[in-house]
């Protein structure tokens, strides 16, 4: 299929991933699909999350003839990848919290994972820690409030440093030297988080790793289907499940989206 790359999240978080993908693949068409009607995903029951994502993503892939899907959401990636890979014939790329690089970079061998409450409790996350950070002391922090703060920032509202401080004070006193931003919403608040925690804490996310994976898959595919891609015109479409306000529309336009509308939910 020669359609757009479909990037999916519950809200604006996946834009942090799309931004990295676009840096390495500027000539592709993208559709950004977000399920803001059900946000925050970190609070949803597992089966509800799986069923809703499967229905929405498979319908949108069929509608757009998407060439590849990126689940730009850690919370969804911990659960929906096997189901989607079974249901779709195109590549499905997920996001994995950057536990492995964090364990390598940390001098103190004391790291933190800041993610949604859903990601924090998943066995997927615990296996990841066991496999790649067994030599580290790992602190776990779950926050949906921070997800909502990132949403607010993306809709043009002001974020107060005091709000960040209130949510992250346990991290500041923990003694970690490396913090994994294990939710794609959090890189949107990276400057605020770094300012509060100070330069002694290294912040890591998975954006560049996902972009590298997508880039290698797209390059492989375009070698195979060179002819189909000729005369291809670039597009940036945003689809959502709940009507959005003017502030967010403005941010999406600044990001480069030319069209946005409600997703067809079936
Ligand atoms: N951006 C998502 C993640 O990476 C989910 C945020 C949420 O809806 O709770 O986990």
TrEMBL record:
Signal sequence extent: none
Catalytic activity entry: L-glutamate = D-glutamate
Pathway annotation from the record: Cell wall biogenesis; peptidoglycan biosynthesis
EC number: 5.1.1.3
Keywords: Cell shape, Cell wall biogenesis/degradation, Isomerase, Peptidoglycan synthesis
Pfam hit, one: Asp_Glu_race
Binding site for substrate: 9-10, 41-42, 74-75, 184-185
Molecular function terms, GO-annotated: glutamate racemase activity
Active site location: 73 (proton donor/acceptor), 183 (proton donor/acceptor)
Keyword Cell wall biogenesis/degradation in annotation: yes
Database matches in InterPro entries: Asp/Glu/hydantoin_racemase, Asp/Glu_race, Asp/Glu_racemase_AS_1, Asp/Glu_racemase_AS_2, Glu_race
Top-rank lineage group of the source organism: Bacteria
Role: Provides the (R)-glutamate required for cell wall biosynthesis.
Similarity remark: Belongs to the aspartate/glutamate racemases family.
UniProt-recorded name of the protein: Glutamate racemase
């Amino acid at each position: 299929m020669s359609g757009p790359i479909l990037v999916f999240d519950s809200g604006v978080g996946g834009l942090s991933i799309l931004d990295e993908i676009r840096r390495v693949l500027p000539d592709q068409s993208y559709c950004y699909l977000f399920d803001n009607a059900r946000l925050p995903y970190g609070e949803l029951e597992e089966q509800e999350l799986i069923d809703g994502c499967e229905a929405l993503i498979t319908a949108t892939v069929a509608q757009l003839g998407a060439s590849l899907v990126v689940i730009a959401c850690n919370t969804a990636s911990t659960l929906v990848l096997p189901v989607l890979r079974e249901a779709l014939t195109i590549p499905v790329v997920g996001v994995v919290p950057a536990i492995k690089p964090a364990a390598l970079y940390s001098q103190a061998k004391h790291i933190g994972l800041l993610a949604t409450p859903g990601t924090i409790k998943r066995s997927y996350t615990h296996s990841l820690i066991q496999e790649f950070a067994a030599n580290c002391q790992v602190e776990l922090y779950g926050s949906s409030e921070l997800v909502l703060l990132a949403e607010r920032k993306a809709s043009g509202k002001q974020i107060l440093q005091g709000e960040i401080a209130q949510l992250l004070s346990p991290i500041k006193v923990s003694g970690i030297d490396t913090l994994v931003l294990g939710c794609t919403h959090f890189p949107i608040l990276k400057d605020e988080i770094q300012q509060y925690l100070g330069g002694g804490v290294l912040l890591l996310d998975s954006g560049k790793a996902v972009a590298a994976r997508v880039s290698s898959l797209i390059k492989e595919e375009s070698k195979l289907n060179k002819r189909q891609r000729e005369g291809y015109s670039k597009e940036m479409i945003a689809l959502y499940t709940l009507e959005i306000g003017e502030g967010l529309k403005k941010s999406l336009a600044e990001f480069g989206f030319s069209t946005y509308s409600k997703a067809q939910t079936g």
